[in-house]
Amino acid sequence: MTNISLIASTGVEKVDAIACEIIGKIGESFPGRIRGYYLEGSYADGTAVATSDIDLRVVFNGSLTSDERQEFAQISDECQKITSIELGMTADSEEALFRIGAVRFQKGTLLIYGEDIRPLVPIKPIDSYTLDSMHFPYRLLTRSRGNPEVLTFPLDYPDPDGEFYGCDRRQMRASDGTIHYGTKDLVLNVLCPATALIALDAGQYVVTKRECVIQYRKWINDEWTALVEDIYEQCRNHWNYRVPEAEADRKQLREFCKSALAFENYFLWRYKAFLLAELQHPEEFRQLYAVKRLGQIIYPDQAVKLALENVKKSNSPEIQLTVDATLQRYLSISG
Fold first, then answer.
1. CA distance 155 to 262
2. Is it the case that residue 172 has pLDDT exceeding 90?
3. What average pLDDT does the segment 162-172 reach?
4. I need a surface site. Which of 78, 126, 260, 313 has the fewest CB within 10 A?
């Protein structure tokens, strides 16, 4: 295997060694195809804790084929076996980055090997960034609840009978390889909706968790600000995403979980208004996405049904069929 010399260090010798081994393995599998390797997340900005993942974005030259994506996924699984630290590996193509633009890629990554293309990639327009940010929390909310086909507003806890209401069900791998149940989902289910609201209400980009906390107070500063700050400082920084042992801390965590559910439902209430506005968007693909999402999150609200009926008047057969499928879900839930 070729010796790898990193352009930049994470400051953690073990993580640097793992990165070198992964780069060598990927380079052997995709000779001449990789433009650069970029760390994202806490190992990129120097805020890693004991349970932080190694998030690596691998940028391919030109476009990325479906076969390459499949092979990359297999290699990612193989790479996880050589390290005790949890890996998050993403394959991207320079073609997509140049065409779509990005935010986190330019502002929140650390180039560790290869050629730096960040100065060439355009910043994603704030409208597109806001759209992505508003739609993303749905994936987290469903994952923390076992990926049900449909969510119903208002949400209940992932596990109403659990000591921490199911907010502690996600397994995490610590840097020593041990597995723990922890609160990463709880942290993400607060910070990602907060990030979306910063984009929606203030038109601001957010790159890191720490930046989310700072910008939420600066631009939003509402009744949820203390929760955003406390979740980040206590659950992530102080407890390292782990469930604390002291009873006073466990009591505090339970209170965080209660407040987090209220914040999730506040976000979904805001998201409903966002989706109803999207139904009126001039671009058909955005209307269609909103119709589909309203079939994944059921809002027992007559205004939603009326809005869906109105958009059904569109000349698009695809939208009409999708509206019918979404309304059928509302009927099955209410029935």
1. 9
2. no
3. 94
4. 313
Mind listing the pLDDT tens digit for each residue in 82-98? Answer: 888 899 999 999 999 99
pLDDT score of 289 more than 80: yes
pLDDT > 80? residue 158? yes
Residue 258, Cβ density class (10 Å: 0-12 exposed, 13-18 middle, ≥19 buried) = middle
Q: Which two tokens stand for residue 195?
A: 């990030």
Decide: residue 154, CB within 10 A, 0-12 exposed, 13-18 middle, 19+ buried: middle
CA 98 to chain CA centroid, Å, is 21
Q: DSSP letters along 111-124, please? A: EEEE---GGGSPBP
Number of neighbours of residue 184 by Cβ within 10 angstroms: 22
SS3 215: helix
CA nearest 10: which of 2, 19, 1, 23?
19
Instruction: Please give, one letter per residue, the 3-state secondary structure of 129-191.
Output: HHHHHHHCHHHHHHHCCCCCCCEECCCCCCCCCCCCCCCCCEEEECCCCCEEEECHHHHHHHH
Amino acid 320 reads Q
Report the distance separating Cα 42 and Cα 52, nearest Å. Answer: 7
Whole-number Å distance between alpha carbons of 83 and 330: 46
First to last CA, the chain: 62
Helix (H) or strand (E) holding 111: strand 109-114
Under a CB-based contact definition with an 8 Å cutoff, are residues 267 and 196 in contact? yes
Q: Is the bond leading into 31 cis (omega within 30 degrees of zero)?
A: no
Q: Give the mean model confidence (pLDDT) for residues 12-41.
A: 96
Degrees to nearest 5, angle at CA 189 with 185 and 15: 50
- Would strands 34-40 and 109-114 be described as parallel, antiparallel, or unpaired? antiparallel
Beta bridge partners of 171: 181
Tell me, what's the pLDDT at 2? 53
CB 43 within 8 A of CB 15: yes
Residue 334 pLDDT > 70: no
